[in-house]
Each structure stands twice: as C-alpha cells, then as structure tokens.
Design brief:
mainly alpha, 3 helices
C-alpha cells in the first residue's frame, strides 16, 4: 500500500508529457489544414492571405514544450524516464 504515493507521483509527469505531445501533433495538423484550405480560395482573396499568414506563423514559431530549454517534452520522454527508472531499480536491487 505504500507504493501508491509513488505511483501517484508518476501519473502527473506522464500525463503532462502526453499532453505536450498531443498539442504539438495538433499544431502540425493545423498547419497542414491551413495549407489544404488555401487550395479552395483564389490566391488574391483575403481568406487565402489570412490562411497563408497563419500557416507561416505556425511553421515559423515551431510549437514545442521544453523543460527550461534543457530537453524537449514529448511522448518519447515518458519512455526515457521509465527506462532510466528501471535501470536504477535494477542496480538498486543488485547492490542490496
């Protein structure tokens, strides 16, 4: 029963990393949707210009989440944390 707090402490960071990964993926989808919608308008129209500006803005800003610019937070971060924790646990068990 005393492992429950440890489990609860790991749920938050995992949920955060998954959410950051999903937001980044949605930003990529939004950019491609802007370019697909541009094809439906004349290149001289106001709608085309707005979609073009928005698509360029999304592409140039590059939505990403970092931990104080040390590393990028994404889905693979979860696997790295799990692998590091498993390695530490195995070393701890071996030296006990």
């Amino acid at each position: 029963m005393n492992q429950l707090p440890i489990l609860l402490l790991n749920v938050g960071p995992c949920a955060l990393a998954l959410t950051c990964g999903m937001v980044t993926a949605e930003a990529d989808k939004l950019r491609s949707t802007c370019y697909e919608l541009q094809d439906k308008f004349d290149y001289r129209s106001h709608e085309y210009q707005v979609l073009d500006s928005f698509g360029i803005y999304i592409a140039s800003t590059g939505i990403r989440f970092t931990a104080a610019d040390f590393f990028e937070i994404k889905r693979s971060t979860i696997l790295s944390v799990i692998a590091t924790s498993a390695t530490y646990f195995i070393a701890l068990v071996q030296f006990s």
